[in-house]
């Protein structure tokens, strides 16, 4: 089970995530309350180098700017939350995680139009395109109709519900941001419990 902790902004949160066993750390470079400057992301990533992969989160950003930030921060994946096309994705240098807001079953049809390394299924877009803490209606996620080896489930996951979500959807991975926060800041205990509960889930 791939576990991704997104919205990392501090050395402490990054260390807690890798110590807990997270596989991927997400750094937000789009408009967000969790936005981070590339230079600080580079410092944090240098401190956990080799212990976890990293992803940069972007929304409709120019490819040249993505490549500039990647070269500063040293990212492993590009995570896209906007209206990026397949041609846009093919022009990027790194593996891609393409995010989709899923509000109804028909939204899943969009996956077939993209060639990406992973598909991140999130709740419908709120104020920000991701990280809104709203859960997907798992009833519309039919495991038999999804490329489960490429699906990362997001949206409203917490240490308390991640195990049941994994059993219901059977994804390749899970992603959390606000679900491991207290008062808008990463909660180290919640990070440990989320990763542990996800990794121990059997389906």
UniProtKB/TrEMBL annotation:
<dbReference type="GO" id="GO:0000162">
    <property type="term" value="P:L-tryptophan biosynthetic process"/>
</dbReference>
<dbReference type="InterPro" id="IPR013785">
    <property type="entry name" value="Aldolase_TIM"/>
</dbReference>
<feature type="domain" description="N-(5'phosphoribosyl) anthranilate isomerase (PRAI)">
    <location>
        <begin position="3"/>
        <end position="197"/>
    </location>
</feature>
<keyword id="KW-0822">Tryptophan biosynthesis</keyword>
<keyword id="KW-0057">Aromatic amino acid biosynthesis</keyword>
<dbReference type="Pfam" id="PF00697">
    <property type="entry name" value="PRAI"/>
</dbReference>
<keyword id="KW-0413">Isomerase</keyword>
<dbReference type="InterPro" id="IPR011060">
    <property type="entry name" value="RibuloseP-bd_barrel"/>
</dbReference>
<comment type="pathway">
    <text>Amino-acid biosynthesis; L-tryptophan biosynthesis; L-tryptophan from chorismate: step 3/5.</text>
</comment>
<dbReference type="GO" id="GO:0004640">
    <property type="term" value="F:phosphoribosylanthranilate isomerase activity"/>
</dbReference>
<dbReference type="InterPro" id="IPR044643">
    <property type="entry name" value="TrpF_fam"/>
</dbReference>
<protein>
    <recommendedName>
        <fullName>N-(5'-phosphoribosyl)anthranilate isomerase</fullName>
        <ecNumber>5.3.1.24</ecNumber>
    </recommendedName>
</protein>
<keyword id="KW-0028">Amino-acid biosynthesis</keyword>
<dbReference type="InterPro" id="IPR001240">
    <property type="entry name" value="PRAI_dom"/>
</dbReference>
<comment type="similarity">
    <text>Belongs to the TrpF family.</text>
</comment>
């Amino acid at each position: 089970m791939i576990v991704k902790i997104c919205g990392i902004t501090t050395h402490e949160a990054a260390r807690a995530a890798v110590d807990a066993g997270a596989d991927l750390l997400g750094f937000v470079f789009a408009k967000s309350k969790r936005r981070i400057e590339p230079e600080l992301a580079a410092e944090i990533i240098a401190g956990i180098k080799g212990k976890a992969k990293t992803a940069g989160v972007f929304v409709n950003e120019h490819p040249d700017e993505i490549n500039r930030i990647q070269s500063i921060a040293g990212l492993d994946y590009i995570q896209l939350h906007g209206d990026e096309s397949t041609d846009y994705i093919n022009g990027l240098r790194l593996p891609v995680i393409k995010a989709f807001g899923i509000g109804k079953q028909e939204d899943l049809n969009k996956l077939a139009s993209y060639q990406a390394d992973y598909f991140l299924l999130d709740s419908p877009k709120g104020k920000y395109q991701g990280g809104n803490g709203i859960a997907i209606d798992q009833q519309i996620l039919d495991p038999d109709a999804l490329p489960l080896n490429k699906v990362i489930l997001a949206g409203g996951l917490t240490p308390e519900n991640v195990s049941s979500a994994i059993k219901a959807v059977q994804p390749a991975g899970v992603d959390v941001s606000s679900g491991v926060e207290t008062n808008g800041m990463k909660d180290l205990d919640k990070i440990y419990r989320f990763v542990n509960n996800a990794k121990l889930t059997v389906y």
